[in-house]
Structures are given as structure tokens and as C-alpha cells.
Amino acid sequence: MARLLPASEDLNALEPTGAGAAADWGREIALWPIEALRGADPVLGLAVLMIIALLAGEAVRRATGLPRALGAMLVGALASPLALSLVARAELDAWKPLIDLAVGLLVFELGARIRPRWLRDNPWLTLKSLAEALLSGLAVAGALMLLGIDHQSATLAGAVAMAGSPVITMAVLGELRPRGQVTERLLVMTAVNTVCAVLALSIWQVAVTLDADGFEWQPALAGVLYALCGSYLLGAFAGLLLERLSRQIRGTGLATLQLALVVIAAMLAAQFTVSPLLSLLVAGMVARARMGHRLQVEPQLGSGGAALTLLLLLTLGLLSTLDGLLGLWPLVAAIIGARLLAKVGTVLLLARPSGLGWRQSLGLGLALQPASSLPLLLTSATLGWPAHLPAPPAEPMQALLIALTLLQLSGPVWLQLGLRGVARESDARPD
């Protein structure tokens, strides 16, 4: 435990002997809060950081007009080993159940806000969603291979780059409360490209085993099919169960029911080693399809969910990494640039057929820029890494993590720029 104040003998040693001694004493006093946080219990330290993140979010909102989520993530980044090293990443283990629950709540909310019939009624929207995800992955993979990265690492990075960030998107939308065609399409396309990323990562794992000597691809394929089918079945069951039980519950009890089912579905997904991301996304979509307007989902499932979302945003900041940026900047720039051009270009190319104007399409393309390592982390946790396969080279994987960090931290800015600045979608209610 770090000492909280200078000891008496230290104070005696710092008797006025000159400007240098006074400066040293002042510096020690000024650094006392940082040292106290470093030595605090991990749970207590993270709870204090949550309060600081909440205040920082309000300060960012008032000073710049940007979403509060940006302030929370910046506090996490400053407290991470990237800057002040107030909280070690290993110390997040005590909070992992709450962090997983926060992810589950936001993914379920995303699924519940999507109307699956819209994809059937507007085939151009379906085509645009699939094309945007596929071309983003191909563009990133191609750019990295042009820079000399091996095809396995490049395609892995491309698969991860397909996905948006459901977490940041839902957190910022809950604050901005935009309404309009661009927002609805953003929700649909974020869900579709996230699913595409998980599928692409699954296919990538099977494909890599074909090139590995002494490793059979059939067990890998069976594991992937089990995880994908099991995720869909678990999500469908949870959505149907919500529809059935909601007939007996009204009022605030419905939010409690939704929260309980999210917890159960996430725990069962971990128990049966299927994807919690897909399971909860499917659960929300099935519930919406079955219940229609009867399904009322509060943003972040109420005030309790809002606190969990703040914890999640803080954690995303704590997991930020920029190690090696100076040496890897060409790869990082290639990932970010290729992904930006692919997403914006595809949306603009299919703007008219899908029923969207040029300005709205540009706003949608910019709002799709937030990225996350969530698909990679959850897919690897579900499917595992084959023991007989060599680990990917460190250099391209670190470049990918740096790119994801930058797109994650700037995510609230992209969303506000795209939805309010360019597409001009806003809600009349005050903050």
C-alpha cells in the first residue's frame, strides 16, 4: 500500500533549505493522489476512477459539446499503463463479471432496436450492409499485403476490421438520442458487420488449419459450426422466453426481466462455449420480431445499466495500447485509411438504390468508423486458439490493436460528426 502522506521524518528532511527542496516537497504533495490510487485496492481504485470518469464526461460535454463517453474513455486511457499506470490490466479481473454484463446489455439493446423485416423489405439495404462489411475486410487485408504482411495475418486483421463497435455505438446513441433513417440504418449495419466479422473469424480459423501440417481441419470446422449454431439457438430461446414471460409482467418489472434474461443467456453461452455476442444479438432481434412495439427497451436497460456502461467505457480506455506506434505507423495508417475508404465508399456507391441521399450516406459512412476488438476477443475466447498452430506475428497484430485503440477512442467523435454534423439527425429533447 502506498503511503498517503509524507512521514514526519520526511517533512523534517524537507525543511526550507532552498528552492529545490521546496519544489521536491511540493511535487510529492502534488503526486500524492496518484500514488494513493496506485496503492489502493483494485476494486476501490476502479470505483474512484468511475467517479472521475463521470465528472470528466460532463466536463467534456460542457467544454466541447462532444459525447460524455469520450471523457470516460480518456480517463481510462490516462489511468492505464499507456500513461499513469494507476490500474494494471490484471486488476480488472475482479470486475470482469460486471464488464461482461455491460457488454451483454448493450448488444441485446442493439438487437432489440433492429427490425429484421426491414432487411427483407429493402434488399438493397441488405446488400449494402453485406458489401460494406466484406469490402472493408478485403480493403484492409489487401492494404496490409501490399506492405509485405503475410496473408494469414492480413486476412485476420481484415476480418476484425469488418466489425463496428456495438458498445460505443449504443452508448453514444443513448446520449445523443438521434432519430431518423441514418440512425436506423447505422443500427442495422453495425449488427450485420459484427455478425460478418464473427463469421469471418470463424472461417479464418478453419482455413488456417488447412495450411498447418499435422492438424486436422474437421474438428475445427465442427467446433465452429457448434459455436455458431449453438449461439443462434440459445439467442432464439432467450428471445422467445422473453416474449412469453413478458405477457405476465408489466411496468418496471419488464426491465428487470430483460436484465435477468441477459445474465442467464450470457452465463449459458459461457457454459456451453458459444458466442455470447451472437446469442444476445439474436435474442434481441427475435424478441423484437415476436413482440413488435410491445417490446420496450430502455436505453442501457435503465440507470443500473448506465452505471455498467460507464464502467465498460472506462475499461475500454484502460485496455488502450499505443506501444510501438512510431515504428508501426505505416501499418496503422493503412488499416485505418483502407477501412475508412471502404466503408464510406460502399455506402456512397449504394446510396441511391438503398433510398438514401448523398449527405445522409456520407454521414452514415462516418458514423460506421468506430471499431472494437470485441469480436476478436469474444471469438477467440469461444473458439480458442488451436494449440498446434503458431501464433500470429507480433508486428501486424500490434498494429491492429493500435488501430483499434485509435478508432475506439475517437468513436464518439465519428458518431457525432456523422449523425449530427453531416446527416443532421438530432432529438429535440434537452440533455
From TrEMBL:
It is a multi-pass membrane protein. One of its GO terms (cellular component) is membrane. Keywords: Membrane, Transmembrane, Transmembrane helix. GO terms for molecular function: antiporter activity. Signal peptide: none annotated. Residues 51-407 form the Cation/H+ exchanger transmembrane domain. Gene3D superfamilies: 1.20.1530.20. GO terms for biological process: proton transmembrane transport. PANTHER family: CATION_H+ EXCHANGER DOMAIN-CONTAINING PROTEIN (PTHR43021:SF2), NA(+)/H(+) ANTIPORTER-RELATED (PTHR43021). This is Potassium transporter Kef. It comes from Sphaerotilus sulfidivorans.
